[in-house]
């Protein structure tokens, strides 16, 4: 499988390393050259320095031939825009993105994107562990 990862933070780096270890062809984009120090120097992946919402940068990372696009920068707007470009412009079959804001995550999920919301996931775990403590009502204010 050909995978393009946007964001080389802890999560993006881990996804890239695990995917290469599983035999996938991987490219990773980040706009901070220091981010790539998280990767082993011998990682067999395409490394692209640039802004992930720039179509030229995405093309230089091979977006036109990827099966999966994963956006995991620390910025919801970047992840949303880049995922929409991958899905609508390049017709990437599998597009996944991380969105911290639960309300926005729900909206973009309803638009057909595969959204992972760590805020909601962690709240769900806490609620399962502490059933008498309901976080659902307090999370609605996080997008303000």
Short characterization:
The protein has 144 residues and is α/β, with parallel strands linked by helices. The protein is built from six helices and six strands, in the order βαββαβαβαβαα. It has a domain at 2-98: 3-Layer(aba) Sandwich (Rossmann fold), CATH 3.40.50.
Using brief descriptors, characterize the structure shown.
single chain; about 20% strand; globular; about 140 residues; Rossmann fold; alpha/beta
SSE arrangement:
Layout: E1 2-6, H1 10-21, E2 25-30, E3 46-49, H2 55-60, E4 68-71, H3 76-89, E5 94-98, H4 102-110, E6 114-116, H5 118-129, H6 136-139
Parallel strand pairs: 1-2, 1-4, 2-3, 4-5, 5-6
Description:
This protein has a six-stranded parallel sheet, sandwiched between helices. It has 144 residues and is an alpha/beta fold. The longest helix has 14 residues, at 76-89. The protein has helices spanning 10-21, 55-60, 76-89, 102-110, 118-129, 136-139, and strands spanning 2-6, 25-30, 46-49, 68-71, 94-98, 114-116. The model has no long low-confidence stretch (mean pLDDT 91). The protein has six helices and six strands, in the order E-H-E-E-H-E-H-E-H-E-H-H.
